[in-house]
Design goal:
heterodimer; A: alpha/beta; Aconitase, domain 3; five-stranded parallel sheet; B: alpha/beta; Aconitase, domain 4; 2 domains; six-stranded mixed sheet; 6 strands; 13% strand; globular; binds iron/sulfur cluster
């Protein structure tokens, strides 16, 4: 038996056949849809007179456009997307976790919660952060709308094998350093887009010391490297996370199978020392424009090439910042905790620990949107909502992506600065002209209290951050 | 798509142009593929009041008819939204030449007849320089031979065979793959685990 990477084992296990030209057809075990990247896929089926190959293997979730302050809205166009999805699911006999369903929420939070992911699966979804499922030793990847149509009609996708990259993170991280900081350090080291064309496997003691929520944060944001797949080998922690969920009985897997063989070779290797990682904050408009808290913003003179100087000037201009400015001085207008990267119960607990007994600074609008309805109910049972509300955060009764991409009515205004637990700091991501600073949920909580970006470790008296 | 594409190239060197910039979210609340040309690069093309931003290359009257873009690294990163590709095509862009592209964007492109020739950083920089001068901005792209012919030189580009075929033949991939239905059924029969999942309604 040849020596193989986890990635190649997953691809081999799902190969249906070769196609002319070198692509292969791979079988999709499970496919997830949302309301905004699926409509044209369903109309494609209609036009071509095709039916859904295996309706039971699909799940649709409403999460991107819905309002979270109340169940309705926010506008007619959003309602149309939602009613269109409902109609399509009814017609094709597909499960839908829509508004008001206790299982509804951000797709990548819902799927693990419902036990719909297990080691060895191949999962596709019309959303780039589908890499999240790699945390379970499953091959998850984002697809476009034409591919959504393809998988609906055939339960397969045309696939080209990726190159492989191994990112090793070893060592004990310092207190206050979270999974978010680990992945931001990886992106900073490797570069945004540097993993275009690669499947990345994360290995090492730092990675396996993370709980499933942390592993999902890491695999989720690996797409910001350009990785089309992110993987962490299955272990006992994975196995435990797959038990007792609504779909656990459907899942049949062997934990020992889903790891790379000892001598497996990778096309590219990256090694990071876990002990060197500090809490990180993004200062620019690309997820690799980050710095450890305590640093000063870069200066033009530090930039090696004219192109780099230009990119720096553009990012600073958009962000309304000056070169050499201390990161920790930057005042914020808003704090947002949410998104498929950091809105699980563990994330909420870590932020609540910082906020307990403290108050959000004057002039800061603070918002928290739990990742799913089940997460919200769980958090309320633990009393976390009371801590957030007492601190001055708005606690939303409905779940969804909200200000992660601002497709609903949670939009930051032109020029407003947001401390955000999300994954993308692109120009306009949280609203036209809005300025996003990515950080861990605990760092967002600390910034909300201070009114400016700050080091969460200064709040360490509030437990083991 | 014919195997030869000729047109005017525009230089758009900014790195990490993501799909939010290519197609801002306010244009995504649609259930059709149509009407996306106005949304393409909307925040780069127009200011808050809808006025044209002169600094954006496609707003320059000399380049408003460009059908080729030469772009910075990591173009099309970010979200999976195919709307970005639909919009570019509707705006009249047939080809985007770059060093590397977001993976999902790359796959979406071939399904919609948008060619993405991949070149080295050095070639890309040379092409950028040619594209900023009207006298040399006319490019001829040969998909079959994988070459870009310019006023000064001919450059090679990379493109997988499947992508070449997809662009030149423009076959419907869903219908084409369904020709393998027997293999799909055989896979299901051989892997009972793969067909066990029945998502709770
Ligand atoms: S939370 Fe953000 S990143 Fe995640 S699926 Fe929603 S919009 Fe995408």
């Amino acid at each position: 038996m040849t020596v193989r990477t986890l990635y190649n084992k997953l691809v081999d296990a799902h190969k249906v056949c070769d196609l002319p030209g070198g692509d292969i057809l791979v079988y999709v075990d499970f496919h997830i849809m949302n309301e905004y990247t699926s409509p044209q896929a369903f109309s494609g089926l209609e036009t071509k007179g095709l039916k859904v190959w295996r309706p039971g293997a699909h799940l649709a979730v409403v999460d991107h456009v819905n309002a979270t302050r109340k169940r309705e809205g926010p506008d007619e166009a959003s309602k149309l997307l939602i009613s269109n999805l409902t109609k399509n699911c009814e017609k094709h006999d597909i499960a839908l976790y829509g508004l008001g369903d206790p299982r509804q929420g951000i797709e990548h939070v819902v799927v693990p919660e419902q036990g719909l992911v297990a080691p060895g699966m191949l999962i596709a979804c019309g959303d780039s952060h589908t890499t999240t499922y790699g945390a379970y030793g499953a091959l998850g990847f984002g697809i476009g709308t034409s591919e959504v149509e393809h998988v609906l009609a055939s339960q397969t996708l045309r696939y080209q094998r990726l190159k492989s990259m191994r990112v090793t993170v070893d060592g004990k991280t310092a207190p206050g350093v979270t999974a978010k900081d680990i992945i931001m350090q990886v992106i900073k080291t490797v570069g945004a887009g540097a993993a275009n064309g690669y499947a990345v496997e994360f290995v090492g003691s730092t990675i396996h010391a993370q709980n499933m929520a942390g592993r999902m944060t890491i695999c989720n944001m690996a797409v910001e490297l350009g990785a089309r797949a992110a993987l962490i080998a299955a272990d006992d922690v994975t196995h435990a996370a797959c038990q007792g969920k609504a779909h656990s009985e459907h899942m049949d897997y062997d934990v020992a199978t889903w790891k790379s063989d000892t001598d497996a070779r990778f096309d590219h290797e990256v090694v990071i020392n876990g002990a060197d990682i500090s809490p990180l904050v993004s200062w620019g408009t690309s997820p690799d424009q980050t710095l450890p808290i305590g640093s000063k913003l870069p200066s033009e003179s530090d930039m090696p090439t004219p192109a780099a100087k230009q990119a720096l000037a553009r990012a600073l201009g958009y962000m309304g910042l000056s070169e050499g400015q201390p990161l920790a001085d930057i005042k914020i207008d808003r704090a947002f905790i949410g998104s498929c990267t950091n809105s699980r119960i563990e994330d909420l607990r870590s932020a609540a620990k910082i906020l307990d007994g403290r108050k959000v600074a004057e002039g800061v609008t603070a918002l928290i949107v739990p990742g799913s309805t089940a997460t919200r109910i769980h958090a309320e049972a633990e009393g976390l909502d009371k801590i957030f509300v007492a601190a001055g955060f708005e606690w939303r009764p409905e779940s969804g992506c909200s200000m992660c991409l601002a497709m609903n009515d949670d939009v930051a205004m032109d020029g407003e600065r947001v401390a955000s637990s999300t994954n993308r700091n692109f120009e306009g991501r949280q609203g036209r002209g809005a300025r996003t600073h990515l950080m861990s949920p605990a760092m967002v909580a600390a910034a909300a209290i201070a009114g400016h970006i700050t080091d969460v470790r200064d709040f360490a008296d509030k437990g083991d951050t | 798509m014919p195997s030869m594409i000729s047109g005017k190239a525009a230089a758009f060197a900014q790195p990490n142009v993501d799909t939010d910039v290519i197609m801002p979210k306010r244009f995504l609340k649609t259930i059709t593929r149509a009407g996306l040309a106005d949304g393409t690069f909307a925040d780069l093309r127009f200011d808050e009041n809808g006025g044209s931003r002169p600094e954006f290359v496609l707003n320059n009257p000399d380049w408003s008819d460009a059908s080729i873009l030469v772009v910075g690294n990591n173009f099309g990163c970010g979200s999976s939204r195919e709307h970005a590709v639909w919009g570019l095509k509707q705006l009249g862009i047939d080809t985007i030449i770059g060093t590397d592209f977001g993976g999902i964007f790359y796959d979406n492109a071939r399904k919609n007849g948008l060619a993405l020739p991949i070149v080295s950083e050095e070639t890309r920089n040379t092409l950028l320089a040619l594209a900023i001068d009207l006298k040399t901005a006319q490019f001829h792209i040969n998909i079959a031979e994988k070459t870009i012919k310019t006023a000064t030189n001919t450059f090679d580009f990379e493109m997988g065979e499947t992508v070449q075929t997809a662009l030149m033949e423009g076959k419907d991939e869903t219908l084409d793959s369904l020709k393998q239905a027997n293999y799909i059924r055989a896979f299901e029969a051989a892997n009972p685990n793969a067909v066990k999942l029945l998502v709770n309604k």
